Amino acid sequence: MPIQQHTLKIRPDHLSRQAVIYVRQSTLLQVRENIGSTTRQYDLVKRAHELGWEQAGIEVIDQDQGQSGSSTIGRDGFQLLVAEVGLGHVGAVLSLEVSRLARSCSDWYRLLEICALTDTLVIDEEGVYDPGLYNDRLLLGFKGTMSEAELHWLHQRLQGGKLTKAEQGKLRFRLPSGLIYDPVGHVVLDPDEAVQGAIRLVFTLFEQHQSALAVVSYFAKHQLRFPTRHWGGVRSGELEWVPLCHGRVLDVLHSPLYAGAYVYGRTHTRRHALPGEEPRIKGRTRRVKQEEWPIVLLDRHPGYITWDQFRCNQQQLADNQNTTAAAHRGAVRDGPSLLQGIVLCGSCGRRMSVRYQREGSVLIYECSQAHTQLAVKVCQTMRGDRIDQVVGKALLEAMEPAQLEVALSALAHLEGRAKQLDQQAKRQIERAQYDADLARRRYHAVDPENRLVARSLERDWNEKLVEVDRLEREYQTQPVPDALRLSAEQREQIRALAQDLPTLWGAPTTTNAQRKQLVRWLIKDVTLAKRGDLVVIDIRWQTEARTSLSIPRLKKSWELRQTRPEVIASIQKWAPTYSDASMASLLNEAGYSAGGGGMFTAKKVQSLRYDYQIEAGCPQGPAACPTGQRGDGRYSARTAATLLHVNISTIAKWCETGRLEYVQTAPHGPRWITLTPERIAELRKPTQQHWKPRQTGKPQQNVVE
């Protein structure tokens, strides 16, 4: 379209304001290589001058070079442009094409809305547009939509080509330590034997200990290093030995590349906006579940383990998670609990936790998940030491047929691990010696007159020699692994000891973690349930076979102090005719003990009668016996005096002189007299004496009726 037609929309009001030229390239590579596009965008200054703007009224915004137009985040130039347009300082916005301004419809339409409000023109190579006019705005909107769609189509084509290449196993990506690309582009094992030995040692230790943290502890204890190769930069491909950390072990165990598999789509990145004064977009990467991996090609290259071993490692890592889910058992720990992580509640089915009391001397299995999550009562709690003993005994009985095979395989495994450790230490010394020789050759190759370089190379050579000396001294001073110094006689002793597996199981050299690991190899889970006075132990073996055992349930403290039912029944039987003291003697003779322990006494029997509301036929005090005669036939002193026609003092005198037989539970307490009909007839007086009141002035007389 000729410039004369463009100028019909350009009014003096537009020319009185600035003409802003927006320059942008999407990547720094385009800025460096696509010079022609950048030149064309800067040439828009001439275009603005031809349309009527003075040179002083033309401004170029090029701060967004190397920034993508898919978002306004990080595009300071575009944000400045929008601000100037909103303030009414801009008469026209010039861009080579719409895609230079924005490749997002939301950003593009927002700019058009502001341009329409402030009467700002939009100019590209094809024409001049007034966003205030519907037809121009419709055309600009269509261009913005096509610009965004173009970016989407470009992304789809790139992703499609990337996916097609990945389906063929030809898409290259960063390889972990221990794997490299050969000159042809195939994945092969690292030719460095020290690197291979370190990778294999990680898998061997994890297979033995079933814990990533145990692998880290082993490397730290033996001062072993782990290899890593730099990716990109000036040190690309350079090998470096660093201390092994927990995250690196997890990366090794989670990588299917070590199993010889080519996998694409293990991670997924999702963008999200971070709030703040300067909001920005950040990608959050998460792992994709193994069953959701889009491309998995097995046996594509050499590996350190098999695919089945890789899957077993993933299952073990999932079990090691310390969660309350029933599917996760947690890692094996050093506590005394034999069934840690594999105990299920027989009431609700949840996984039971382990709790220790009295500084670890008392083991408790407790189902407290419902209490923690729902604030309800604890499902069940029980002592764990006796349960561990029963399960351990069942485990040893199940292993009796294979004791010898277990011993031989354990001994072979121990020897293999010791040799592997020794070889790894030798490889480290060999690597350090190679570095020292390389430093020596560099030092001898330099011009001796060039002291600046020679001193630096000499210092590097000395450092390498010190490292070699340190490794050699550590290798000579470290203790030789037990498996490497066992004699033939000692090996036979180990085989003989394996025949007595219970002794080996309880040996001080066998750790709690080793016992737990052996339990997990054979037992899948153990379900505990209370059934009356019994604790039912249901063992589910790895073969899905089940063994049901039971032990007496430990009584609570108040139950241990509770009086036995047969004691209460005896007291109810004897109470009408026996005193508390007599019943205490009878109970002691029968072999019963009081609830809190010890012998029965009259006071304890009396307390039981009060607690169980048992009436005493032979009370201690006369007031408790209105008839004056107890259930055992004994009479109170007053009743005896009435029967014998004497006064109470006479009864007391006869008791003291032994004329009457009586019982007295406490000193100066009431007496209960034993009187038979014959004894009553013998001691009864013929008449009863009455004492009359003393009369004034007359001597008192004893009247006998």
Instruction: Please report the total strand number as a whole number.
Output: 23
Structural shape: elongated
Q: Order of strands across the widest beta sheet?
A: 2-1-3-4-5
What CATH architecture label of the largest domain applies?
3-Layer(aba) Sandwich
Low-confidence stretches: 1-5, 696-705
The end-to-end distance, rounded to whole angstroms, is 162 Å
Percent helix among the residues? 40-55%
Count of runs of 4 or more consecutive helical residues: 27
Keywords:
705 residues, alpha+beta, Rossmann fold, Hect, E3 ligase catalytic domain fold, 4 domains, five-stranded mixed β-sheet, four-stranded mixed β-sheet, disordered N terminus
Please, could you describe this protein's structure?
This is Recombinase family protein. One of its GO terms (molecular function) is DNA binding. It is built from 27 helices and 23 strands. With about 700 residues, the protein is of the alpha+beta class. It folds into 4 domains: about 5-165, Rossmann fold, CATH 3.40.50; about 180-320, Putative Large Serine Recombinase, Chain B, Domain 2 (Hect, E3 ligase catalytic domain fold), CATH 3.90.1750.20; about 400-510; about 565-685, no CATH class. The strands form 8 sheets. A 5-stranded mixed beta sheet has the order 2-1-3-4-5, with helices on both faces. A 4-stranded mixed beta sheet has the order 14-18-19-20. The protein has a 3-stranded antiparallel beta sheet with strand order 15-16-17. The longest helix has about 45 residues, at about 405-445. The protein is elongated, with a radius of gyration of 49 Å.
